[in-house]
Amino acid sequence: MGSTIPVAAILLLLGGFIVTGGIGAGWTWSPAWSSAEFPGSELVPILVVFGTLLGAWSAGKAKEGFGAEGRQAGAYYLIGSVVFAMLAVLALLIAFIVTNGLQTMLTGTSLFGGQFTVPFVGVGLPWPEFPFLMNQTGGLYVEIPGVLPAVIGTLWLVFGAVSFTVPLGIGAAVFLTEYAERGRFTQVVEIATNGLWSTPSIVFGLFGLAFLVPRISGGNSIVVGQLVLGFMLLPLVLITSREAILAVPDAHRDASAALGVTKWQTIRSVVLPAAMPGTITGVILGVGRIAGETAPLLLVFGGSPYPSNTPNVLTSFTLTAQPPFVTNEALLSPASALPYQLYSTITAGVFPKEIFTNTEFGWGTALVLLLVVVGLYAIGVGSRLYFRRKLHHE
């Protein structure tokens, strides 16, 4: 009773102020120790959340009769309320972006307005038309500007960073867990890895601008952007891969060694498949971060925010007589990406066509970026489930 009566009094006081209009939309709090003003439209939701958490904790204690069980139940309800609040904030954020960007993204959309020509046959089939997703951003003959070059640029950035980072990170994790002895060297590597993961992204961008750009492309380019984002992703892949490998039971290694196989065969056929779901989890988390990075791209990647063509990376490979004997003009050229284009739209206040304002085009770009990140998450989650199911069946 001693812990519920004060809580009930606080909740009744807060509820009374809100219901009677003592704290409403027109009310403003101006504390003497600060020049900021806090309107009631912002304070009321905060007070409601605070009251909900406090009430959940007190109700859980009262339900289980106080004591140790009551405190445990109170903590359980409190944690559940916090999780629900986090999911509610996430849902509110997604709903806000969808509400503001959906109309822009669906401008000119026709379910069967497009046409798809079947390769080698030449037959045209009805195809959905999404101008905002399928059109170039700039150009004289583009009526509805789209974000296709930025989408392709974002996918190339993520693909290049993952292709560069995953083999290197998994290889380093295998060496540190299976070959290197636990000692000062591995401790130094752990400290350095954690430090790199917590390093601000702008520092990676400055490193790319000062060290990579003069030696690789001489200017902003896709390949430098891929390397910079790969360096950002590498610490997380190494950390999660190492933890996943350490989580594999030693009994699996002992059983494999009892069959007479070599250490490398054990790692390749037993340890890595068992650790793959955890490794993919780290890759998923890292991809979600690098796909939305803006600061490094401003320094090493971006060219025109509204290009009139997409980067043709696959068709730009050429053979040369000098090392490295293969070049790709598209990879050595700047491009656009969704975060970079969104930043340019908001800060510069420019937009490619008068059909959209810069705000409308920015919200549409933000929604497409959200869909791209969710799509990458879906691919990662599907891969993790596939390897987990395959591991259990075998």
UniProtKB/TrEMBL annotation:
Gene3D superfamilies: MetI-like. Residues 151-380 form the ABC transmembrane type-1 domain. SUPFAM superfamilies: MetI-like (SSF161098). CDD domains: TM_PBP2 (cd06261). GO terms for biological process: phosphate ion transmembrane transport. One of its GO terms (molecular function) is phosphate transmembrane transporter activity. The chain crosses the membrane at residues 6-29, 75-98, 105-127, 147-176, 188-213, 219-239, 270-291, 361-387. It comes from the Archaea. One of its GO terms (cellular component) is plasma membrane. It is a multi-pass membrane protein. This is Phosphate transport system permease protein PstA. It comes from Halolamina pelagica.
